[in-house]
Amino acid sequence: xxxxxxxxxxxxxxxxxxxxxxxxxxxxxxxxxxxxxxxxxxxxxxxxxxxxxxxxxxxxxxxxxxxxxxxxxxxxxxxxxxxxxxxxxxxxxxxxxxxxxxxxxxxxxxxxxxxxxxxxxxxxxxxxxxxxxxxxxxxxxxxxxxxxxxxxxxxxxxxxxxxxxxxxxxxxxxxxxxxxxxxxxxxxxxxxxxxxxxxxxxxxxxxxxxxxxxxxxxxxxxxxxxxxxxxxxxxxxxxxx
Length: 241
What we know:
CATH architecture: 3-Layer(aba) Sandwich
Strand order of the largest sheet: 3-2-1-4-5-6-9
Helix content: 25-40%
CATH superfamily: NAD(P)-binding Rossmann-like Domain
Keywords: Membrane
Number of helices: 7
Largest sheet: 7 strands, parallel
Subcellular location: Membrane
InterPro entries: Epimerase_deHydtase, NAD(P)-bd_dom_sf
Main location: membrane
Pfam families: Epimerase (PF01370)
Mean pLDDT: 86
Radius of gyration: 17 Å
CATH topology: Rossmann fold
Number of strands: 9
């Protein structure tokens, strides 16, 4: 992708980050950590409605994903930016498979299309373990299709992160996740060797790994599985001390 004149490219300071799904579990962590990142001087959070958050580097941009890309100025700031997509829902919350596809496939794809046209620097997607476009499981199939279709857009750098069970405080209550999280720490010894990739992971660690990976600017498509996410996050934490 070719950066627009005057916008930061790989290896430079003054970078812009754009976060879709900025009020979700991982999205909130992305925004928080990016605002603390000296290598990023502008954070555009795509939100359904203003949250009231204030920070010198933060721009909250009310976004209707149904219309995203159809209006003039929708791509403002995208040239040379690092895109972070943490959009996602559940079939229960979405209400139907069609609506689930809209949130987890159509919306991330629209974001990627804008980025491709504008010349975004990178695109980092929160995907899921088991993502496979040929899977017999609907959820995994949609996640896999999203990865493939975004990669096909040809971003110079596309990173798909596949975390295991996410730990952190969500806005909505999910009994299954809450129960699994309660068991995660006392049973942490189970997640060793071949099972290490299935160990539950903090949303903050996923966000840290996404930011660290985007910072490298390594071109091409990269799938980052759960175990590697944890390792990248740990390395980034050590480096930032």
